[in-house]
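Appendix B. Raw example, untouched.
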Amino acid sequence: MRAWLLKLRLDGVRIKGDRPPGDWVEGFLSFHEQRTNARSFDCLVLRRVTDPHPAPNWAELFEPRLVSVGAGSMWLRGFERVDGVGFVQEWRLDVQRAIKPNETYGPPVGELHANTSA
């Protein structure tokens, strides 16, 4: 699925204030299962539209859970790895309509409202 992603946390801490359009990343979402010796994890990954190959992923969200759904947007919460440490992360995903190959949209425009139900 093609979507725009805005990370809502940095090292587990919610990012406050206005967010510039450059903070949004356009990419392709996919799910996979990641296994370790002890257990397996669901993982949602985003690959940038501009990346020619599936790996490396620009962002990974482990054990994603749907928090909220809005008009064309979803908020997900899970965990991300940063330098081998796990942090809580939240994503806002804006799903985009299909476009012609090799074309992109600019970042979503309009007012951002933080999800305060968390």
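End of appendix B.
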